[in-house]
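Its record is retained below.
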Amino acid sequence: MLTKEQIAKRISKEVQDGYYVNLGIGIPTLVANYVPESFSVDFQSENGLLGMGPFPYEGEEDADLINAGKQTITTLPGASFFDSAFSFGMIRSQKVDLTILGAMEVSENGDIASWKIPGKMVKGMGGAMDLVASAKNIIVAMMHTNRDGESKVLKKCTLPLTGVNCVKKIVSDLAVMEVTENGLLLLERAPGVSVEEIRKATEAALIVEGDIPEMEID
């Protein structure tokens, strides 16, 4: 199984030069650490920042520089700051090329549940609803199963939905899967993980065609 850092590293390969990218809370925030330095990529945070950089080293944090998850961050040369209304204008007008989100559950048709567990305190949906409604391309970063070993990649989400039929690709600690009309197409498997192990951990319809290669992390 992959670590959270390795999931982020694999997803960084989906980021193309020149992209505007929004990173959700959790694993997605790590992606900025692995994008090649030769790439010109602008990371956008819905609290009003374009040009977000990697996390700061310990002792170099600036409490006034935070992302949407209230984590301290750095900025890159040319970064700009603006109010949240302007930020959501960018999102709603589809200026963001790629959105990377965490999820509690994802269904086989691309529904995502990422913001609420009934009966538990939550901070709210934040900008996720706007992002899933407006984004051109959504990749989910998640652990494949919960703490009890139950699948989080489902035929149908059981938690309140954030968005419907919007996810394009899932990268978990076990696999890379693409959402298709017929179910989830298995593209890659984590090093040392078999297709059968992925099948057992996936409730959703899983399409396996030919030999499935291992992910290239490094």
Q: What stands out?
A: The first helix runs from residue 4 to 11. The helical segments are 4-11, 84-92, 128-134, 195-200. The chain has four helices and 13 strands.
